[in-house]
Amino acid sequence: MKIILAGFNLDKTTINEFRNFIREVAKKLDKNYFLKLNPLEKQHLLDQLSQKAYELIQRNNFTPETISAAYARISRNPKPVNELREIARQEVDRARKSNQNIIFGLGHSSVAEHATFNFDVIGISRLAVETIEHFRLASYTEKSQRYILFQDDFTVPQEIKNTNFEKEFISLIREQNQTYHQLYKILRPYFFKKYSVLAENPDKHPKLEGLAKEDARYVISLATQTQLGMTVNARTLENMISKCATHPLAEVREYAKKLYDATEEIAPSIIKYTEPSDYQKFKRKDIYEFISHYELQKNGESQETEVELLEYPENADDEVLSTLLFRFFQVCKKTANNFVKSMNLEEKKVFYQTIYKNINSWDSVLREFEFVNFTFQLIVSAGNYGQLKRHRMVSIIPQDYDISLGCTVPESIKATGQEYIFWKIIEKTNKIYEKLHRENPQIASYVLTNSHRRRVLLKINLRELYHFSRLREDEHAQWDIRQIATKMHNLVADKLPLAAALLGGKDKFKNVYEKFMKA
After folding, report:
1. What angle do CA 259, 144, 234 make, to 5 degrees?
2. Calpha distance 296→315 (Å, rounded)
3. Is 19 exposed, middle or buried (0-12, 13-18, 19+ CB in 10 A)?
4. Is the pLDDT of residue 445 over 60?
5. Residues 61/89, Cβ–Cβ less than 8 Å
6. Cα angle vertex 407, ends 401, 410, to 5°?
7. SS3 labels along 23-63
8. Judging by beta carbons within 10 Å of its beta carbon (0-12, 13-18, 19+), is residue 270 exposed, middle or buried?
9. Exposure pattern of 333-344 as b/e (b: 16+ CB <10 Å)?
10. What is the DSSP letter of 152?
11. Residue 38 CB-density burial (10 A; 0-12 exposed, 13-18 middle, 19+ buried)
12. Class of residue 494 by CB neighbours under 10 A (exposed 0-12, middle 13-18, buried 19+)
């Protein structure tokens, strides 16, 4: 695993000072200028440049801490903020003391959010990435198994190295990878034949090959290595380090340490308390111990469906309208509620048509839609979850992977008669998973594939559901998450015929919009 600090934000004046100095050096050391000087003049010039370089370096203000310190002083100092930035740049030690006092002494932690960092995260498992991307106030761009042909790169967990399981673990992962390449060779011509018109255009070949990669990847494991770019502010970074430091997986703990090592010298005043608290250390253990005293009877699991709408508000169509009235008419919410109740269905529909008028597929619906919330229980594959977790404004509570929930099998594998190959590797995977699970439940999931499933509890407001639906029901969306999104859409639209009327993928938006507005 490699964690490389790729960049961080700096005061623009600091950047300009160094840029201008470099230009000055380039100009004065140009052979057409420098060689015309006599020896004494040359030495004098070199001494000047050396002195200026020393002064710039001594300021030691190549840190995002100066911006945090300047912004922290805005609330208590009448000086213009650009002057506060200049003071912080010139007095980095004082800026750091100010940060420590304001962020950690007074508890104004949001000041640390003005400092941001960019990281290259290389050679980390897909299983560990599920924890990394759990932190919603950060940005991630991850290597896609849908577009890149996977090679034989995987993580051997520290917990497995030098144990009796190591050889068996490596052998299984390599067999999964061989199956992946075997399936890809079969699925590639299948998709070229299925979409023969597209196949006639060489520019479309990468797309068709991507479909084959997309479905073949359902047999590769969560130990598969990936890489990602991450942008995170200092407050979230500190939280990320402390929480990951207590994680059951050694790989995630290593990630936490390397994050800290990469930033401790750059920003010591804003990434300070990275040691996990007792709450973080013991909460998982305490909860498990408490629950272990109870016997929970499983009822109804056999009747579960992939998508269940567990909770939704009654009269949700009315809730959006009354919240809009609250904003525009300066009335209390109770009055707004009563007024909307007095409206007939046709009046409410016209109200919604007014709300939706001129909306485009890329426009967000109004913030009032956030006051309508839904809770779903989903059963999703690991491949599906990898996309679901990227919706960071949604509340997601995943269970551990559960082999009793079965696997998601791509239709292309069924259509090409490769189910035998698929289930053969899955059965072997499940056997080794069970052996590992008896030894260490946490590391067992490394061997599970993108097809293995878990339950997820998902809470989402209607505004975010619109975004989710636009993106994940579109024809370009991956089929697995598209199926889930469509089922969620249908369940909600059945309860909210007006507020959910424009749900659907971007590709269908025009038709859906015109149909509702003309009705």
Report:
1. 25
2. 34
3. exposed
4. yes
5. yes
6. 135
7. HHHHHHCCHHHHCCCCHHHHHHHHHHHHHHHHHHHHHCCCC
8. buried
9. eeebbeebeeee
10. S
11. exposed
12. exposed
Residue-wise pLDDT for 46-101, tens only, equals: 999 999 999 888 888 888 888 888 887 777 778 888 888 888 888 777 777 776 67
CA distances 420 to 160, 179, 210, Å, are: 29, 11, 23
Q: How far apart are CA 31 and CA 34, in angstroms?
A: 5
pLDDT at residue 109 in the model = 73
107: left (phi over 0), alpha (psi -120 to 50) or beta: left
Residue 401 Cα to chain centre, angstroms: 19
The answer to whether 225 touches 155, Cβ cutoff 8 Å, is yes
Query: What does residue 62 show for φ and ψ, rounded to 5 degrees?
Result: -85, 65
Domains of the chain and any CATH numbers: 8-114 (no CATH), 125-291 (3.30.1360.170), 313-368 (no CATH)
Helix, strand or coil, per DSSP, at residue 75? coil
String of DSSP letters for 336-397: HHHHHHHS-HHHHHHHHHHHHTT--TTSPPPGGGGG-EEEEEEEEEHHHHHHHTT-TTSEEE
**Packing angle of the helix pair 12-28, 39-59 (nearest 10 deg):** 170
Q: Per residue, what are the HEC states of 331-348? A: CCHHHHHHHHHHCCHHHH
Beta strand residue intervals within 399-505, DSSP E: 453-461
Q: How many residues does the chain have?
A: 519
Interatomic CA distance for residues 397 and 399, integer angstroms: 7
Q: Is 306 exposed, middle or buried (0-12, 13-18, 19+ CB in 10 A)?
A: middle
Query: How close are the terminal C-alpha atoms of the chain, in Å?
Result: 57
**C-alpha distances out from residue 60 to 6, 63, 89, 233, 271, Å:** 19, 8, 9, 21, 17
Q: What is the largest CA-CA distance in the chain?
A: 94
pLDDT exceeds 80 at position 130: yes
